[in-house]
Amino acid sequence: MKLANVIKDNDRSRALAESKWIVFLTSIMLLILVIWGALSSIQLHYNYQKSLMDSVTKSVLAEYQEHLTQLRLTIDQFQFRHASALAQLVLSGNQTSKDEYMELLTQLREEVDDVRLFAIVDSSGKGVLSQLTGEFLPDCREEIDDTLLRGSQENLFLHRSPNGFHYDLLQPLLVDEQAGLFLFVAFDPAVLERILTQHQLPYQQLFLMRSDQSGKIEFGTEISLEKSHDQSIYMSGEEVHQFDFLKPIPGTRWQLAIRLAPEYNARVYLESILQALLLWGVTTGFVYLFYQAQRRRLYKQRIMEKELSFKTSHDELTGTMNRATFEGQLAGFIAQHSGQLMMEGVVLLIDIDQFQLVNNSFGYSAGDSCLNLLSFALRRQLPAQAKISRLSSDEFAVMLPELHHELAHGFAEKVRQQIEQFDFTHIAPDLSLSASVGAFVLDGQQLGSEEVFNALAQAVRLAKSKGGNRVQLYHSDDVALSQHAQEMNVVRELRAALNDNRLQLYRQRLRALSDASQASRYEVLVRLIDHHGSLLTPDKFIPAAEKYGLISQVDHWVIEATFAAIAKDIGDNSSHYSINLSGVTLGDKGIISFVHTMLEKYQVAPQRIGFEITETYAITHLSAAIAFIEQMTAIGCEFSLDDFGSGLSSFSYLQQLPVHNLKIDGVFIRNICDNRLNQVFVETMHRLAKEMGKKTVAEFVETESAQHYLSSIGVDYAQGYHHHKPEFWFEYSADVTGS
Prior knowledge:
The chain crosses the membrane at residues 21-39. The protein is of the alpha/beta class. Among the domains are: 82-188, Beta-Lactamase; 323-476, Alpha-Beta Plaits, CATH 3.30.70.270. The chain has 25 helices and 24 strands.
């Protein structure tokens, strides 16, 4: 019995000793781990702060550059507004009175913030108004000399004066007679200091330093302008090397410096080590509890990893796959069946029609509820092997790997009907949804998921162009899809051309058939240079511009470019130009104001400008057409009714339209010598126009015989290739943003 007890005691001792060793070894291992964790945490803190400092540096640099650029722009605008007053100051020179100077300085301070004074510097660097502004300080003189040498201000820096710091901006004096003069404006630098302070984050120190003087500090978040004014402050080379970022500010002698506060590293080290030691001490004393806590922690960690994995691969709102995961699944399916003859496999793209209206009308919370319910309803209907993803705010994609190709359209239609019939009234009484659904069959010939999504996007856009709430099955040889894709290419090309000024003006002369002494008359035409350098005629891009809402931008571009071309041609003061306007532009309430602005900007006489509107639009929008014509006619512009004769109701409405010219549709002109009905029609239209006091223009005159006939019946003008082919006129190089 005693022997058994001794054996048990030995076992307990051995177990206790083993436990002690386990505690010791575990404690050592834990100590190593917590120290490593502390060091990792310190590194993470530093990397995080470094990324913040990089972001702050970029933001401050951007704001400094934007501030200085805006000041220069404002100064130039001030010069334009007060050009005559500035010119008078230059002319008066040292005879300028203090009242004249102060009046202009007051205006400058009202229009430009933080201005101290201004001066005018001549080409030798002397102040034209020195009797009022005093002689330039040495720092100012250095910057003036540098600017005169370079031709522009490239080395901006702070200048110290008895009253504090200031900086100067030198802009060329925009007075034509005074080439070589500069407008010198001195500014209070407080806003520069304020920008640093506004961007300062906790534990960060920002400084504005001189790039041409090692270690010299202008000011910073730790050194105010007042403090740096009392004495120049320098940092040692070692201190300068401690900065995490030193970035020069273009056009200045400054560089932006940023570093962590010295106490930050000490605080992070201390907190991290203390936390590590505390964790080590607690866990060492309760090793068995620690084991249990570890098991619980690992269990929770596994749950969190699963949740995190789910969140990174699924949409947070609906719980469906996110786009990246879905694309990966689709790409894997395509790769697995690449080159195989497939009869199964379909992908759907579901785009909720006008979903933004739901958010605008019922709120984003209602919109989220709709999407959540909709995704639940779709998943309930889909087969088990189907994959569903929410691609964007109002788009879902579905992959059906086992759906037969012949069933693709029917299944997509079933999905569309379900969305249309789904009851959302418990969210909002009048709420209902519809969807445009694109379907694509996977036949094993696809190159990748991007090709599939591009095809689905084309199918959905075509469905929406047909009114939405319908299914469109993609076929590579589908004429409508091909046409829609071509239109989208044209739209992208046109947008790029508008942004890059790749539009050109052409013109075609109208020949006067009765009075050859009249001033030249032209119709303005537009061409587009695509990214390959090819010339596109209007029939290639105007229909797409009208369909996709770009025609107004084109019209605005043509109007301004035409006026710019007329203003540029100073040798021609009489030619008349006629500009085509679309119905969309004609109905724009701002077009009249825009035309007035452009006429004034380019100093073009309204009597040299005409506008052409189509007969169809004029008749269908009679009130808007009459209002526009009357207001433009009142200032001297001329109007022509284009394609006259193509509308069935034109005669009954013609007398209400105060146009000056009727342009007879070319369909009646091309074969007029061989078609008696066209002759009768043109003669009738000409007599009608003559009785109403309007002139007639025949379009598409391509032969001498046609021109001779038209002249014989009294038509006023002929336009066409027989007389003049469209010629390049003008390429507008400025930034046209009239729309």
